[in-house]
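Dear colleagues,

As part of the handover before I leave the project, I'm documenting each prediction I ran so the next person doesn't have to rerun anything. This entry is a single chain, and its sequence is reproduced below.
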Amino acid sequence: MLNEIVFLLNVISTFIMAGVVWYAQIAFYPLLSFIGKKEFILYKKEYNKRVMPVATIMILIEVLSSIFIIWLRPSGIKLFYPVIGLLLLFTIWILTWFIEVPQHKILENGLNKKSHRIL
């Protein structure tokens, strides 16, 4: 029963994070160019304030459940698969930390076309 709950938490948190990323890529980032200079910094701060709690909770659930899947792994599942899943998750985090986070930091000071394009 615990295996099923952990797996379900992992699937749900992964889908929520995928939704957050798709929303940002399809709606949020393109719309940034329509915000006036005066309002941009405040808008960006509000966005971060509202999105980060959801993203942080889902990231924690996603990583903890990924680790627990390795630990609680049913005997019929090879260790290779959940380890690859966790490595992919860490790869996503590394890319996010070194590509997207610096661009968001730049945007906290106002719209920057290069950072906006990278995102």
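The chain is about 85% helix and 0% strand. The helical segments are 2-31, 37-71, 80-107, 113-118.

All the best with the project,
I.
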